[in-house]
Design a protein that fits this description.
Number of strands: 10
Bound molecules: iron/sulfur cluster
Radius of gyration: 16 Å
Number of helices: 7
Number of domains: 1
Distance between the termini: 21 Å
Largest sheet: 6 strands, parallel
CATH topology: Rossmann fold
CATH superfamily: NagB/RpiA/CoA transferase-like
Order of helices and strands: HEHEHHEHEEEHEEHEE
Shape: globular
Length: 207
């Protein structure tokens, strides 16, 4: 295990999070499915990592209800209603934009539902992340989000932001109406009423 990964795991545990480390996706996927109650309702956020691991299909096939605002058949109003319903989910399954070696979870959101749920609401938050998300410190975490995560997510979502066109993010962020960076949440310790399990996988996953 790399030094940075070992440091991050020790710090996350010291900050109250439950952490499990996996060398491959298959073992991690099974462990995640084992931890999540088969009757729980799950909040789906836009995690590429969870999608690539096939977690939504696996959970849905075994009978978990997925609250999913991304279903293409939904109108814009219906998507917004589903986003509000996410706040009632029993489990949030998501990733983190960055994880620092001193054990912080760092996320930037446009709508805010994902970061809200990471802090309070669900009975369990499950964070799945590749070790590529680990950064030495908070400064590097924010830099990673602005230069790696945001540009790729903006292109994936077809947003008209400077970062989508490889234009460096302005110092105070952009003025695009489609700006994704609207709420920055740094979780320093596991929130008191929100048990959080972090599955770190020794691969490059998601953005
Ligand atoms: S503030 Fe705008 S340009 Fe900067 S990373 Fe966020 S969406 Fe991209």
């Amino acid at each position: 295990m790399k030094d940075s990964v070992a440091k991050a795991i020790a710090s996350l545990e010291n900050n109250g999070f439950k952490v499990r480390f996996f060398s491959n996706e298959n073992e991690a996927r099974q462990a995640i499915l084992d931890e999540i109650d088969a009757k729980a309702t799950i909040a789906r956020c836009g995690s590429v990592t969870c999608t690539d691991l096939g977690l939504w299909e696996s959970l849905s096939q075994r009978g978990n209800e997925i609250i999913d605002p991304y279903r293409p058949e939904l109108s814009a109003e219906e998507k917004d209603r589903e986003r509000k319903r996410l706040l009632t989910a029993e489990v949030l399954l998501t990733s983190s934009n960055a994880i620092t070696e001193d054990g912080k979870l760092v996320n930037i959101d446009g709508v805010g539902n994902r970061v809200a749920l990471q802090v309070f609401g669900p009975d369990l938050v499950v964070i799945v992340a590749g070790t590529n998300k680990i950064t030495p410190n908070l400064h590097e975490a924010l830099k990673r989000i602005k230069t790696v995560a945001c540009p790729q997510n903006a292109r994936r979502l077809g947003l008209a932001t400077p970062c989508a066109q490889n234009i460096p993010c302005p110092e105070n962020g952009c003025e695009s109406p489609q700006r994704m960076c609207r709420a920055t949440v740094i979780i320093e310790k596991q929130p008191r009423l929100t048990p959080t399990s972090i599955y770190l996988i020794d691969k490059s996953l998601g953005y």
